[in-house]
Amino acid sequence: MCTSIVEIATVDGMAKRGDDWFDLTEAVVSYDHARHALLDDAITIDFINTDLPPGARAAVELSLESAKALQAALAIAIAEADEEEAERAAGIAQQRLAKVQAA
User: Fold this and answer.
1) What whole-number distance in Å separates Cα of residue 16 and Cα of residue 23?
2) Are 7 and 30 in contact (CB under 8 A)?
3) Which pLDDT tens digit goes with each residue over 28-87?
4) What Å distances lie between residue 15 and 6, 18, 31, 55, 65, CA to CA?
5) How far apart are CA 64 and CA 27, in angstroms?
C-alpha cells in the first residue's frame, strides 16, 4: 500500500552524480515501497535541482532504523555547528570592538 508520506524542503548545496556536481534546489523525503533497497518500505531522500532534467538527482533509500540514526547524527552535527558558528560570530564581534576601541 502506498503511504502518500512526502515532505519537500528547499535546500542550498551541491550533489554529485557520476563525475558531475550540480546545484541543489530541493530535498524530497518520502516513506514508501523501496525501489532498489532490499526493504519492504524505505525512507527515500531525493536531492534534486528542479531547473535541470529529471536525471539531476542523488537518491538514497534507508531503512526506518537507519533514517532514525541519520536523524540523530544530523541533530548532533547541527547542534555542534550552531555552537561553532556562535563562537565564530562572537570572535568577529570582539575583533571589531577591539578595532573601534583602538581607533
Assistant:
1) 9
2) yes
3) 999 998 888 989 899 999 999 999 998 889 999 999 999 999 999 999 999 999 999 999
4) 20, 10, 21, 12, 24
5) 17
User: Hey, what's the cell of 14?
Assistant: 551541491
Cβ-defined contacts of 67-71 (< 8 Å, 24+): 67/43
